[in-house]
Amino acid sequence: MSLGLALKDILTYCGVLVCLVMSIDGSMLTCCNKVHRNNSVEYLLSEAPDPNCTTRWDLINRVIVDENGDVDTRTVLYHEKDRKIILGNIISGVVYRLECPHSGVSKPVNCTDPCVPENPEADPPFWKILFIVLTIFIFTLFISMICCMCKKMEACCEKAESAHDFELTTGNLHAR
Hints:
Blueprint: H1 2-24, E1 31-35, E2 41-45, E3 54-59, E4 62-65, E5 76-80, E6 84-87, E7 94-100, E8 105-110, E9 113-114, H2 126-170
Parallel strand pairs: 1-9
Antiparallel strand pairs: 1-2, 2-6, 3-4, 3-7, 5-6, 7-8
């Protein structure tokens, strides 16, 4: 048992180290996009990259924000250093490039996935809706069962009462 526990602890420790290394070298870095009503598109990184790395934004093999922060104003409406850009219209092919010479990481991050809404209440998850529907269904079922039991008891009481009335009118009383 202690060997199993020790093995579990070692695997947990290794998993934490792998996650730590992946986040340090930018392997966990993702990019998403959000289309606005005016058809401009915001491209957002999941986290700020390591400040020791050089970065740039590319659009179909053309640099639109370079390593020094110089911006192609024909394409880019807004640029927030190492975090997001907004382009004037819907364009595919935006790539964030991360170069970290100290760790040997050279990684392109494609910005193809739509961003998840920041407000979790704006788009409730399926399980919340399912929970509410099931709760209402179970509550309704419970109330229906209580009503049926009450009606059966009422019918049973009426039957007993009418039998008692019958005994009184016929004079068929038994001494108890």
